[in-house]
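Quick one, C-alpha cells below. Sequence please?
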C-alpha cells in the first residue's frame, strides 16, 4: 500500500475523515477533498501531524470542471490516483409525494453524478497502472427507508454502477465495491434523523450489535477493500450496520 495515492471525497468530517486518517496510517498519500476548504485543510493537517502525507483540496464533486481540475492537481504533484473513495454525500428528507424536484436533482448530482465524475477522471491512471480500487459509499437506505426518496435512489444507483464498473474494469486490474453503512454516529446521521436525540436508545436496541457504528468501523472496511488482500472482491456491496439489514426493514 505504501506510497499509493488515495483520493477521498467529502473527507473533511465523519466517515471521510476517518477513512483519510486510516489510509494515511497505512502509508498511502491521501488527497483530502471536501467542498468545505477549511475542513479539508484541518484533516490534512491532522494527517501531517502524525507524519502522514496529505493534500487538502476544495472542490464540489458534482462539478465536472472542479473534479477534473482536482485530479489534475493530484497528478501534477504526486501522480495517478490508485484508490478512489466516493464518500461525499448529502441527504434531503421528505415524505413522498412531498419531494422537491430541486432536492431530487441536487441529491443525485452530489451522490451519484459526483462519484461517476470522480471515477471517470481517475480510471485512465488506474488503467495505465494495471491496478486500482474504487469504493462507493452506498447506504442501508438503498434497501428502503422512510422519507428518503432522493437519498435511497442515489445510494441504490451507486450499487448499480459499481456492479457495471466491476464488469468493465475488472480486466484492467481495478476492483469496484460499495460499502453500505448505517447507522453511523456522524453529524449527517444526527442532523437527518430528528428523533435521534430522543430515541438513541431505541435505535441502539434495533441494531443486533446493540450500538451505533463509528466512522472508524467503516474506515476499517474501506481500508481492507483498498488493500492488495481484497483483490478478488469486486462488484460487491457490504452492509456495515451491526446486522440491522439482516432483519426486516426497521424504522425508528
Ligand atoms: N452516517 C451514516 O449513518 C451514514 C449511513 C449510510 C451512508 N452514509 C454515507 O457515508 C458518506 C459519509 O457520511 P457522513 O455521515 O460522514 O456525512 P457528513 O455529512 O458527516 O460528511 C460528508 C462530507 O461531505 C462533504 N460534502 C458534501 N457535499 C459535497 C460536495 N458536493 N462535494 C464535496 N464534498 C461534499 C461535506 O462537506 C462533509 O465534509 C455519505 O455518502 C453518506 O451518505 C452515512
Amino acid at each position: 500500500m505504501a506510497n499509493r495515492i488515495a483520493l477521498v471525497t467529502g473527507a473533511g468530517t465523519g466517515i471521510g475523515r476517518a477513512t483519510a486518517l486510516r489510509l494515511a496510517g497505512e502509508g498511502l498519500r491521501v488527497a483530502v477533498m471536501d467542498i468545505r476548504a477549511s475542513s479539508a485543510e484541518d484533516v490534512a493537517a491532522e494527517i501531517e501531524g502524525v507524519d502522514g502525507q496529505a493534500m487538502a483540496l476544495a472542490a464540489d464533486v458534482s462539478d465536472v470542471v472542479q473534479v477534473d481540475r482536482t485530479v489534475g492537481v493530484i497528478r501534477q504533484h504526486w501522480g495517478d490516483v490508485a484508490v478512489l473513495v466516493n464518500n461525499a454525500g448529502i441527504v434531503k428528507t421528505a415524505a413522498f409525494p412531498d419531494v422537491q424536484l430541486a432536492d431530487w436533482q441536487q441529491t443525485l448530482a452530489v451522490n451519484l453524478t459526483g462519484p461517476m465524475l470522480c471515477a471517470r477522471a481517475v480510471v485512465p491512471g488506474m488503467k495505465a497502472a494495471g491496478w486500482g480500487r474504487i469504493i462507493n459509499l452506498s447506504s442501508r437506505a438503498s434497501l428502503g427507508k422512510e422519507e428518503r426518496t432522493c437519498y435511497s435512489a442515489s445510494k441504490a444507483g451507486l450499487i448499480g454502477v459499481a456492479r457495471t464498473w466491476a464488469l468493465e474494469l475488472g480486466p484492467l486490474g481495478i476492483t469496484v465495491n460499495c460499502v453500505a453503512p448505517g447507522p453511523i454516529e456522524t453529524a449527517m446521521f444526527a442532523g437527518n434523523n430528528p428523533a435521534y436525540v430522543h430515541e438513541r436508545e431505541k435505535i441502539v436496541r434495533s441494531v443486533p450489535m446493540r450500538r451505533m457504528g463509528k466512522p472508524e468501523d467503516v474506515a476499517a472496511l474501506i481500508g481492507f477493500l483498498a488493500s492488495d488482500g481484497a483483490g478478488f472482491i469486486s462488484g460487491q456491496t457490504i452492509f456495515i450496520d451491526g446486522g440491522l439489514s439482516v432483519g426486516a426493514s426497521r424504522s425508528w
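The radius of gyration is 17 Å. Residues 86 and 136 are 5 Å apart (CA to CA).
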